[in-house]
Structure formats: structure tokens, C-alpha cells
Amino acid sequence: MNSEQLLALDKEHVMQTYGRFPLALDHGEGATLYSPEGRAYIDFASGIGVNCLGYGNEKWLDAVTAQAAKLQHVSNLYYSEPYVRLAEQLTARTGMKRAFFANGGGEANEGMIKLCRKYSFDKYGQGRSTIITLVDSFHGRTVTTLAATGQDVFHQYFFPFTEGFVYADADDLESVRALDDGTVCAVMVELIQGEGGVLPLDRDFVKGLEALCAEKDWLLAVDEVQTGVGRTGSLFCFQQYDILPDVMTFAKGIGGGLPLAGVLASEKTAEVFTPGTHATTFGGNPVCCAGALSVLEQMDEAMLQSVREKGDYLREKIAALPGVREIRGMGLMLGVGLEEGYEASRLVGTLLEKGLLCLTAGHNTIRMLPPLVVSKAEMDRALEILEAVLGSAT
Ligand SMILES: *Cc1c(COP(=O)(O)O)cnc(C)c1O
């Protein structure tokens, strides 16, 4: 099927929920994707921060195909090795205590929200269920995670939303304290707000939040759906903030392209979920977990260091380009803040036409989430395209 036929079938038979770019993708190699007609695109999006090992990673492919041939699914009524080994790896490498596996970020966040409320219910009874989240956050598209998302544009159409979410300002600990009305059980944050504009939280704010949560017995709940799995140059972003969450979620990058997500509970919250209190049919799928085990095995210190180095390289080069006001983010999670007169959404469309896939984010930002294995040659080609497009943008 060629691109034109494919786009026509989508328009006719698929619910039009996505503002898709007029581009079909067929296969990939490294950090380069190809259309059905064979045109190459440097991938600075990775899906949306999903394909961390790029395309055609042989170890990942071997792990996934071997598991698919052996056993493709097992109910959570039984045990199986891939999810057990994955939980062991994740806890060993984070200092967290136990894992629960889900299928996507929004669903993992639902689990984390349930855990926070049950932790408080078990200890204090009813009436302590409010969760503080931050303005400009993004936590998912379910009715509850939309309520958790601190952006008004998401609080439309689907009323009534789940109660019990209030919004503080990022980097303003007083605005968090001001929401303490005796009903709070948790504070939920992204350490770098991804969809909201690639906005890293201030270190002192995060340390202050950790201390405030400890003081009030609120859970510090960290959404690492986008920042996790090597994206920022450490396995999880919290490790660079020198904190330990009480509970956290991960998703996007973990399966190397397969749908997998989860919640990690600390020592303090490891026993909140008991039999019957939380579940999902597909959670911990063996094929997805086999893929994730390969992702984690390859996510060693050398890989993490290369993420930091590539991030530094891109930052330095991009900072010198026309129209660039600032670069935010960590590792290979980068947000390019533009000068007045430059429009991120229009630029990302032009970049695509020239063969570079980027994303947008809030605050007029070009967001870049390349596969962590992106090569020097691919980065340099991307920089050439960026320079040409930004140079002729106004
Ligand atoms: C993408 C994202 C989500 C939602 O994940 P889905 O897999 O789309 O449900 C939640 N939180 C953050 C921080 C995200 O970036």
C-alpha cells in the first residue's frame, strides 16, 4: 500500500482523534525511519520517547522473538519468569521494593493514584484522598489522569472528572504548602514536565518536596513515564535529583517499542496493594517483559554516559542556531525554546518535509527525544536540517 492509499483508508475508517502528520512509516534502521516509498527520516521522536534502542536492535529482536515462540501470554493467575526477572532488575537498579506491571503510562498512573489513596486510607481512614499535582503537568488521558493533569485545556468535555486533584505551581514550595487542608495524601510530579514544555523541576524544590512529604506523611509520587529508562542519562531521572520516590511509574521506553508500563513501590508502600485490590489482564506480558529485559541489559553505564554526551553535543550545537532562545532538559530529552516569531508547530512540519522528525511541547517548544542509540552521523544530518530550517524560518 502506498502512502496516499494508506492515508485515505485512515480518514475513512479510523476515528480522527489524532492530529497526524501527513506521513506513513514503514520500517527503520538505527535512528532512521523510512516511508513506504523509501524516503528516509532521521528520528528525533522515537514514537513519543518509546523506541529507545532505535530500529533493528538485534539483541532486543532475538529476546522478543524467542519469547513469542515460547509463550506469548500468561494470565496473572499464574507465575512466569520474564515479569519476575524484570521486577528483580527494576528494584535492584532503583532501590525501590516491588513492581506492578501495566500496559501504558496513563494506566500505570491510575495504579499509582489508587496506591496513594489506599496507603492513606489504610493508615488514616477516609477523608485524606487529595493529590497535589503541578500546573503544566501531564499524566494521561483516562478520566482520572486527565483530572490529575494540571493543564486546563485537558479539563473539557468529559465531565464529571474524578475529584480530589489540586494544582500547585512548579518550583514554588509555598504554593504546595498552601494546598494543605488536611485532606492531602500525596504529591504527584514529573521531574521534567514533558508534554508541558520540557521543563525540569528545580533541584531545591524537589528536595523541599521530599522533605515536606516526609513531614506530612504525604507520598511523593513520581511520574517517570517519559523521563525513565535512560532518557535523561540515568536509568531514572530521580537518580539525578538525589531523592527516592515513595512510589513511581514508568512506561514509554521500557519495552523498547512494545506496550509495557508499571508502578514501583518503595519499602514504605510495597504492601499497599493486596490480592484483589488492583489488576490488569495484559500486565506483565512475557513478550513485552522479554523486550524490557533486553532494554535494561543494554542500558548499562556506557550507554547512559553516551546519552549524556550526545545530549551535551546536541545542546551545544543547537544553542548556536538562529531562533533558539534556550535549550531545556537532560540527556536526550531536549526542549528547544524559540525566540518570538518562530512557531514550533509550523517548524516541526517543515522539519518533517526536510527529513527530520521532531515533536512539539507546551510553551512553543520543539521537543527532541531521539532513540538513545542515535549515531553521530544521524545527529549531524539532523543538525544540518535544523540549521537550514531555522535559518529560513522568519
Ligand atoms: C506519555 C505520558 C503519559 C501517558 O502515557 P500513555 O502511555 O500515553 O498512557 C503519562 N505521563 C507522562 C509524563 C507522559 O509523558
Give a nutshell description of this structure:
This protein has about 400 residues and is an alpha/beta fold. Helix content is about 40%, strand content about 20%. A hairpin with a 2-residue loop joins strand 1 (about 25-30) and strand 2 (about 30-35).
Overall description:
The chain has 394 residues and is an alpha/beta fold. The chain has 13 helices and 17 strands. The strands form four sheets. A seven-stranded mixed β-sheet has the order 4-12-11-10-7-5-6, with helices on both faces. Strands 1-2-3-15 form a four-stranded mixed β-sheet. The protein has a four-stranded antiparallel β-sheet with strand order 13-14-17-16. A hairpin with a 2-residue loop joins strand 13 and strand 14. Helix 12 crosses helix 13 (376-391). The longest helix has 20 residues, at 105-124. The model has no long low-confidence stretch (mean pLDDT 98). Bound molecules: pyridoxal-5'-phosphate (PLP). Pyridoxal-5'-phosphate binds next to helix 5.
Taking strands numbered 1, 2, ... along the chain, how are they ordered across the largest sheet?
A: 4-12-11-10-7-5-6
Main sheet summary = 7 strands, mixed
Bound molecules: pyridoxal-5'-phosphate
Low-confidence stretches: none
Topology pattern, helix = H, strand = E: HEEEHHHEHEHEHEEEHEHEEHHEEHEEEH
Q: Give the total of beta strands.
A: 17
Tell me what portion of residues adopts beta-strand conformation.
Answer: 15-25%
In whole angstroms, the N-to-C terminal distance is: 37 Å
- Report the C-alpha radius of gyration, rounded: 21 Å
Query: Can you give the mean pLDDT?
Result: 98
Q: Helicity level, as a percent range?
A: 25-40%
Helical segment count? 13
Q: Which structural class do the helices and strands define?
A: alpha/beta
Could you say which overall geometry the principal axes of the C-alpha atoms support?
Answer: globular
